[in-house]
Amino acid sequence: MGKPLLRRIAEEVLGEEKARNVWKRIEIIGDIAVIRKSFTISVDELKPLAEKLLQVIPHVRSVWCGVSEVKGEFRVRDYVHLAGEPRSETIYREHGCLFKLDIRKVYISPRLNYEHKRIALKVKPGEVIVNMFAGVGLFSIIIAKYSKPKKVYSIDINPDAYYYMVENVKLNKVEEIVEPILGDAALVIKDRLRNVADRVLMPLPGLSYEYLEYAVMALKPGWPRYIHVYDFTFAGPGEDPEEKVKQKFAGKLREIVPRYEIEFSRIVRMVGPRRYQVVLDIVVEKPH
Ligand SMILES: C[S@@+](CC[C@H](N)C(=O)[O-])C[C@H]1O[C@@H](n2cnc3c(N)ncnc32)[C@H](O)[C@@H]1O
User: Fold this and answer.
1) What is the C-alpha to C-alpha distance for residues 37 and 161, in angstroms, rounded to an integer?
2) Rounded distance from Cα 254 to ligand 1 centre (Å)
3) What is the per-residue pLDDT across 146-175, written as a single tens digit (0 to 9) for each?
4) Among 77, 142, 157, 170, which residue's CB has the most CB atoms within a 10 Å radius?
């Protein structure tokens, strides 16, 4: 296999040594390209590379550099503008749906695209779903488009994510199905979404373990009910990341539900050296 596109262009523009400080992966979100770099190269040194990317990648109008990890409650990254239009709002397309968003204000990761469709295809007609950490609505809207849920309650605590989710629900014409809700998922469920759901989505590694009891609270009594949890874990040599996450959640599930099965797990992606994002599809019985 040849070198990745970004590495090839970076070597051409910056020379081989400096090019090593640019991450191999480029992320294209709508008409915005995002690159990342190590601390050893300055943002200004990347500008000629960004100009070249504008020329060679069709449809890209703006190039940004991600200069922090995804951080804080809203899971947003810091960016510095490199080239092209100084605009961070765009329309991202996934699985035939449109998502308006601002990369500087909301979470977005094209790397979740397989998960969005995988979960959508699990949903059965007539289901009621609670998406506890919905962002700008990717899981919720793709589910509404591909399956025939009765209702998707779609919660996010970030006012900007909520604003774009409302826009995206209109853009994709799923107003009858997806209901955006602004707030803390725990409070929203306690106040108004107890015993309503067939299925709960928890796409926020880092909070899914702590909020598991609220996912169960949202479920209708009975069996089978479904929870999809996302979590991060470190796995050293010889350790299995999926097993680690299963054991962690099994401990808590034993305490809060009478019966459960972890019916599927997979590594969604690597998020650092030996650090993995893992998803568990869990079937639970919600007591009456
Ligand atoms: C990883 S992002 C969600 C990604 C989204 N599901 C997608 O597929 O693009 C996590 C989201 O959870 C939201 N969030 C964080 N804490 C929350 C809470 N307590 N209640 C509801 N939403 C929360 C953040 O604002 C963020 O938009």
Assistant:
1) 26
2) 26
3) 999 999 999 999 999 999 999 999 999 999
4) 142
Mean pLDDT of 104-129: 97
Q: Whose alpha carbon is nearest atom 5 of ligand 1?
A: 135
Q: How much distance in Å is there from the Cα of 185 to the middle of ligand 1?
A: 9
Name the pLDDT band for 225 (thresholds 50, 70, 90).
very high
Pick the CATH number of 108-286 from 3.40.50.300, 3.40.1190.10, 3.40.50.150, 3.40.30.10: 3.40.50.150
Check if 156 has its Cβ closer than 6 Å to any atom of ligand 1. yes
Q: Residue 3: pLDDT band by 50, 70, 90 thresholds?
A: confident
Ligand 1 neighbour 112 (Cβ under 6 A):
yes
**Fold for the domain defined by 5-87:** GMP Synthetase; Chain A, domain 3 (3.30.300)
Q: Which ligand 1 atom sits nearest the alpha carbon of residue 116?
A: 8
Question: 134: Cβ below 6 Å to ligand 1?
Answer: yes
**Ligand 1, atom 18: nearest CA belongs to which residue?**
184
Spell out the residues 6+ positions from residue 89 whose beta carbon is closer than 8 angstroms to its own. 100, 101, 102
Q: What is the pLDDT of residue 39?
A: 87
Q: Is the pLDDT of residue 187 over 90?
A: yes
